[in-house]
Amino acid sequence: SHPLTGGGMSIILNDIKMWRTFLKDIPDLYDDEKIFQAKQKFYRLRKDSCTFVVNVLAEVLHGLFTASDEILLRLRRALFYYCNLSTECAMGPTLLLAVLSTKPMTLIRILVTVILYAMYLAVKLEP
Fold first, then answer.
1. Inter-residue long-range contacts of 63-69, CB under 8 Å, 24+ positions, other chains counted
2. Residue 6 region, left (φ>0) first, then alpha (ψ -120 to 50), else beta?
3. Which of 40, 90, 94, 121 has the smallest C-beta neighbourhood within 10 Å, fewest atoms?
4. Mean pLDDT throughout 30-39?
């Protein structure tokens, strides 16, 4: 994850929470087979956790905030305008950044909406 989102701390805290759950059921930490099973379960569950959303969001935001390309600059402007439309529009990205919403479909919905909004703005603002 990128420092822009601060998501690394959220990811590691989520990882610790998962490992705590797995390890409490293993009385002998020298039991390689049980540790291996816990590790496999961890990797499988981690894909479905906040890690995906935080990493994708971090890459998207990093790309937008470091952009010099005209298209990406338009997308960045559309994101700012979108967030200013209403509290509800601002809440989606905020919840994703705070890792209070970890649903990949929420991220995808917001990204698609911002792209469509950027296209709308391009048509509306062109002379």
1. 65/4
2. left
3. 40
4. 94
